[in-house]
Design brief:
single chain, about 60 residues, alpha+beta, 1 helix, 4 strands
């Protein structure tokens, strides 16, 4: 699991293939994650380090 120390929030990685109508589904998913207090990092690069979608700071892997 990834965590942003600056924002104090968990960050979920989510890969998306863009297709018609996906924007509305992603908006709903983002809203749901915000209600749970989490951030979403859409289509990150294949290798770390990952950066927070909100503040840009490097994310910490708290599973290590």
């Amino acid at each position: 699991m990834l965590f942003c120390q600056n924002c104090k929030k968990e960050v979920v990685i989510y890969g998306v293939s863009h297709s018609p109508g996906i924007d509305e589904a992603l908006k709903d998913l983002r809203k749901q994650m915000e209600e749970e207090g989490k951030l979403i990092l859409f289509n990150p690069p294949p290798f770390a380090p990952y950066h927070c979608p909100n503040c840009g700071s490097e994310l910490e892997d708290i599973n290590k």
